[in-house]
Design a protein that fits this description.
Shape: globular
CATH class of the largest domain: Alpha Beta
Strand order of the largest sheet: 4-10-9-8-7-5-6
Radius of gyration: 22 Å
CATH topology of the largest domain: Aspartate Aminotransferase, domain 2
Largest sheet: 7 strands, mixed
Strand content: 5-15%
CATH architecture of the largest domain: 3-Layer(aba) Sandwich
CATH superfamily of the largest domain: Type I PLP-dependent aspartate aminotransferase-like (Major domain)
Number of helices: 17
Number of strands: 14
Structural class: alpha/beta
Helix content: 40-55%
Distance between the termini: 55 Å
Oligomer: single chain
Number of domains: 2
Length: 487
Amino acid sequence: MNVKDLSPSTAISAWPDVDSLYRRFAELVRQPMRPLRKESMAKVMRYFDERCAGSKRLAEAARHVIPGGVQHNLAFNHPFPLAMRQAEGAYLTDVDDNRYIDFLQAGGPTLLGSNHAAVRAKVNEVLDSCGPVTGLLHEYEVKLAQLVCQTMPGVEMLRLLGSGTEAVMGAVRLARAYTKRKWIIKIGGAYHGWSDQLVYGMRLPGTGRMEATGIPRGSTAYTQECPPNDLDALRRKLQLNRLRGGTAAVLLEPLGPESGTRPVHLQYNQQVRALCDEFGALLIFDEVVTGFRVGPGGAQAYFNVMPDITVLGKCLAGGYPMAGAIGGRRDVMLLLAGGIGSTAKRAFVGGTLSANPLSCVAGYHALKEVIDTDAAGKAGRAGDRLRKGLEQIIERRGLPYVAYNMGSIVHLQTSGVLLLDTGNLYKLWRVKDEAKARKHMMEEMGAAYSAHGLITLAGSRIYTSLADTDAVIDDALNRFDDVFKLV
């Protein structure tokens, strides 16, 4: 493998004190909730009635033809989805001409800010010359693969797919084909897409098949989960699996489950790497969120840990569709060799629209812009500024809320629903009523943010971007302060 620069990325200025965070998480869920006052929530609801008539009309129409009224989870917000007509830089504008600071950033992929002009111009050039898809080789799929291999330490070869979900599916299949083993251990609470075998232990550790409606038990028969930060539990799983054929791979989000909602200790990834080496398992980093948001080299460069397989999505196409890829060691990746009628052993993956010119030109120029502008570093510093400001507001108002960040990924825990102790299904059953109430509070907080011109992810996660200047962040902090004074 070529030696690549594994120096820490500047996108994360300092790793948070994880032990302190978990003490604060415990304190947050130990005490009664601190939601908005009823009269304040009534005022928030009037915003949607009086200022969002167009969105409400579209949401009502959507419910007749779209299950639940939304096509994907990001679009759900209380009391109804807001319909956008314009996205540019740090701002979104809805169909009723309300403008919002965009801290959703399409769920994370638009690190440069929404609808970046330089990338859009290059995409339009390719659309004018050959259209979005040909089904054949295009120069930009080679250029994008070359650039990713140059920037990410653990990636020697790259296979493009259609989404993060597809890429995780392919990575698991690849790991099993390479090792000739079946067991996959994921870190509980992480989201790795919606494929049958990985709808297991999602979002809350210890929940197993709770979300696996419509999925036969056989599909998850070889999927296991371990609590984050629990190396002893991981070792026990690896030892048990060794007695019954061995573990194919350990799959994790390197910041911790749900983009660091349950953050891992700074040395955790190195320790998991050592365990994988000891037991002959492959290490898969799900960098759908962290690559290239944590820096052009991803979280693997920041932690100086080399995974065997890397899963990419979101930022890979700069916010354009068909963003997914598997990267990794050359000897492993060669099992993904394409071609019709091949008799060689391989892990089969496909996708007619994978590596289409539109996605590849967008991804190449978006990543080039990220590197040339230091977008990850600047977005990370915006995240630092936002988190510090939130902490000051929380302290000044005497609230138990917890704000922390890993660069441009900012967490704001107000209800604590994602932090409840769910070590097993019995514990989850005992707290299910509390979980429902805390989830509703999180939704109400998200609605309050929207009514004050802030779009976040589920009211608890914030993505900053290159477009978030000091002025944008300071404006946002004033808006968050206006919400918190309603508590």
